[in-house]
Amino acid sequence: MKKLxxxxxxxxxxxxxxxxxxxxxxxxxxxxxxxxPITVKKALEKVEGVSRAEVSYDTKQAVVMFDNKQTKIEALxxxxxxxxxxxxxxxxxxxx
Length: 96
What we know:
The protein is α+β, with helices and mostly antiparallel strands. It has a single domain, classed as Alpha-Beta Plaits. Helices cover about 40% and strands about 30% of the residues. The chain is built from 3 helices and 4 strands, in the order αβαββαβ. It has a 4-stranded antiparallel sheet. The radius of gyration is 17 Å and the shape is elongated.
């Protein structure tokens, strides 16, 4: 029984180790008022695996931290698009 618990914990821990937090910057040119970033941020934060989203009206960008094992960049783009603000990846995705 102890071996089963140890193996289970090892497998659980290994899934956390294999996950890597990623950082992506999205360009969102359709934000046209100071309230738009609030809507975009809420949409991004609803995506499973997103740990943080910072959205700027001034730069028309969102910087998103996410777990690459739980979500992909396409889900982030879909989230902003479905909220009414189409976006595109700016640059490359980087690890943090």
